Amino acid sequence: MTTHYLVLSALLFAIGGVGVLVRRNAIVVFMCVELMLNACNLAFVTFARQNGNLDGQLIAFFVMIVAAAEVVIGLAIIVTIFRTRRSASVDDASLLKY
Amino acid sequence: MNGTIEAPTIEYALLAPMLVVFGAAIVGVLVEAFAPRYLRSAIHLPLTLLSLAGAFALAVWQALKGVPTKPAAMGAVAVDGPALFIWGTILVLAFVSVLLIKDEEHFVGSAAALPGSAEEEQSLVERAAHTEVYPLLLFAVGGMLLFPAANDLLVAFVALEVMSLPLYLLCGLARRRRLLSQEAAVKYFLLGAFSSAFFLYGTALLYGYAGSVDLAKINLALGSVGGQDTLLYIGAAMLGVGLLFKIGAAPFQAWKPDVYQGSPTPITALMASGTLVAAFGALLRVFWVGLGGLDWDWRPVFYGVAILTMVVGAILAITQTDIKRMLAYSSIAHGGFLLVGVIATGSAAQNTAALSGLLFYLVAYGFTTVGAFAVVTMVRDAGGEAWHLSRWAGLGKRSPLLAGTFAFFLLAFAGIPLTSGFFGKYAVFQAAVSGGALPLVIVGVVASAVAAFFYVRVIVLMFFSDPAADGPSVVLPSRGTAAVVGIAALATVVLGVFPQPLLDLAHSAAQSLFVR
Fold first, then answer.
1. Which of B153, B311, B444, B446 could form a disulfide with B213 if both were Cys (CB 3.0 to 4.6 A apart)?
2. Stretch B7-26: mean pLDDT, rounded?
């Protein structure tokens, strides 16, 4: 019965991945990355159930902590560039190219 | 579920180099919190340098005492010959980069002040400085040490993040051209987080396949678990995406020129040397140990990636007009040359040859690239470092010593004999030929020739064209920067003329291969 959870996890990961590629606002892009990390967590917990060991559930805690640290760093960086440019669009930041 | 958790045994002595670096980073955070502003830099600099030197001494002591034959910390961290060699390399390169970073004029006084605002003026008047740079750097170095030694995929993921998160912040702290610097930080952060999500999902799928994230157990499961090949192949591919991104291999190379250009140059030097070494160590461990039984499947993929990386790096470098972007594309091409060695697996002797070649190459390239970026910090315009290549015209007539040193670094990148780059390429390509990857080596040699073209173009520009009337000035280097250029030039010469001691060391480090 764990298949449904794995399919849901894959769907969430795909939604996150597509979101990163098509959305323009840096905050939304970042939320999509977080969605991908949560999809990973769901997969870990499901596989823990399937494999009958606790590793996957423990890993999910590690991933949450790493995701929290990532939010701190990410919001700091995005807020800084928003204050400079008055825009959080990833298309506007295009000085570095070629 | 069987739910008992045993208390782990941890070999603290083996992990001591890492613990020293992390400990010093935490002390650095406390210094930020409690020491008065005027004392901070005076405390941070010796603390950082001593901890890196101490960690290096501990790693050497461990190597002399004998290399363990079993992974430490319940199989989570493998302190083996290659890991100790890579630790030594990263610690020396980080030490050299700190000498470059200690010139605080590279970093913004107050990152929160808007560019061009009164607050920014104020921070310049007050000579404010972000001394947080040092603890951040130590955390990043600690992550770099853990990443290549991680013997299970969870530890590898955590190490990847510990290494990357401080670097994202450091990228955005340049004092001049702050818009570029902030843009580099955003791009590096979003793309880096995206790629680590792939790494993590790959880990999840391999955990589902093997029932463990331990590399040795995954390798065991390759032979015994049947009917779950989809999980295995998609998982391995996603792990590969995460690792190849960190290396900057094509088609995941797009971030590298932007980030290398926008970041403060000393941080670029650290990323181009330390991060590359750490990421290659981790790539080798994951694919040789964890997925070693799957090499018939991943080898063709790496074959294609290596060719693409060498070609993209060498050809796009020709079209660059910015010195830092050119060095970034050169770094991509070198990543491709190193990937040639990753494919050259086979018998144990073959693996040792390939691994020792790679280890030598990483040391040689790391020193040369730190030296090259150190030279870039010294050529200045009114608005900061002079990045545009046209500004470098005639530099050889203005300051022959600096231009000569830079030309020497470029020749080492090109792999001219009597430089360290030659023996690095030779060792890797020789291993690849004996491993049966001759076509790849031919592509590599052609790409080297293309790369040599643009290195020589810069040399010609520096020495055979007339300097512009308002050309950039070469600042008198601080003691730190001068030491970095000196050490890098010395290493490039010595490894080019007497490579044998380091080749022997790399060989003995690679002798026992990775522990399982």
1. B153
2. 92
> What residues contact residue B207 under an 8 Å CB cut-off, 6+ apart?
A44, A47, A51, A55, A56, A59, B153, B213
**Within a domain: B3:** no
Listed by number, the residues of chain B in 77-96 with a beta carbon closer than 8 Å to a beta carbon of chain A are none
A92 close to B (CB below 8 A): no
Residue B5 resides in a domain: no
Q: Is B429 on the interface with A (CB under 8 A)?
A: no
Nearest-Cα distance to chain B for A69, in Å, is 8
Q: What are phi and psi of B388, to 5 degrees?
A: -70, 135
Q: Between chains, do A85 and B179 touch, taking CB under 8 Å as contact?
A: yes
pLDDT at B283: 96
- Residue from B100, B119, B101 nearest B109 by CA: B119
**For B57-72, what is each residue's pLDDT tens digit?**
999 999 998 888 888 8
Question: What are the distances in angstroms from CA A74 to CA B4, B68, B200, B273, B459?
Answer: 37, 39, 18, 24, 40
Confidence bin at B91 (pLDDT 50/70/90): very high
In chain A, residues 9-68 whose CB comes closer than 8 Å to chain B: 9, 13, 16-17, 20, 26, 29-30, 33, 36-37, 39-40, 43-44, 46-47, 50-56, 59, 62-63, 66
Does B516 fall in a domain? no
| Domain containing residue B88 | 12-511
Asked if residue B262 has pLDDT above 90, the reply is yes
Whether residue B468 is predicted with pLDDT greater than 80 in this model: the reply is: no
Q: How many domains does chain B have?
A: 1
What does the pLDDT read at residue B2?
Answer: 59
Of B148-157, B263-272, B290-299, the one with minimum mean pLDDT is B290-299
Q: What is the 3-state secondary structure (H, E, C) of B13-31?
A: HHHHHHHHHHHHHHHHHHH
- Inside any domain, residue B4: no
- pLDDT at position B348 is 86
Q: Between A13, A93, A98, which is nearest B186 by CB?
A: A93
Task: Encode pLDDT of A30-61 as tens digits.
Answer: 999 999 999 999 999 999 999 889 999 999 99
String of DSSP letters for A71-85: HHHHHHHHHHHHHHH
